[in-house]
Amino acid sequence: MLSSLTRDKEDLVTVLNETLSLPNVSELDLVSVLDWSVEGARNALGSVHQHRSRVPGDQIERAKTFPVRPRSGALATQSLVDDLTRVVRSYPAYRSATVIIGGPDSLGEVPNLRTRLARGLAAATGKDLVILQWPAWRIAGGALRASALERRLHGPCLVVDDIWTDGATMTAIARLARASGADRVYGLAAAMSHRDEDGV
């Protein structure tokens, strides 16, 4: 028992040192991101093509090239999934989630990055997966068109996104998850978008 408790504390310290925990967002019990800024990574590293960094912001840019550069996009996506998996396995709160929620996505020929990350993370951790689909799920002027998920949830769940901008998508999904029975809702994103003083 003592060694298990010690291990959990060590894992928590490691995750807290390697991720950013964001301020409390009303509907989310915990939100973390792997990288401080997509733009910041690009600015700090220079051209994406000149560097082979594992910075999540850099990996997101490569992963989004999947339709044009499938091999590079798939490798970058897998790298992000590996980083997210390490966090989920190391952080007791994330580890406790029984369901991973990804999307929204149109689920066309090529799923969007947030869907690919959620699918990969669910497969790597053995957790159930729920993917929200357009057009059945929308945020319209800050209001949800759906009132609950298509399935009932029990216990905690984890909302996965590629980029945290202002929290609107994760917050809306968290409301749906709570309306569907989740008692705790955690958020995990690969990177947080960067805006300068002018909001650009």
Written as H for each helix and E for each strand, in order along the chain, the element string is HEEHHHHEHEEEEHE
Largest sheet: 6 strands, mixed
Oligomer: single chain
Mean pLDDT over the residues: 76
What order do the strands of the largest sheet run in, or round the barrel if closed?
Answer: 1-2-8-7-3-4
Taking the alpha carbons of the first and last residues, their distance comes to 50 Å
- Going by helix content, strand content and strand pairing, the class is alpha/beta
How much of the sequence is in beta strands?
15-25%
Radius of gyration: 17 Å
**Number of distinct helices:** 7
Overall helicity: 40-55%
Please tally the β strands and state the result.
Answer: 8
Overall geometry comes to globular
Question: Can you tell me the residue ranges where pLDDT is under 50 for at least 5 consecutive residues?
Answer: 38-53, 139-143, 196-200
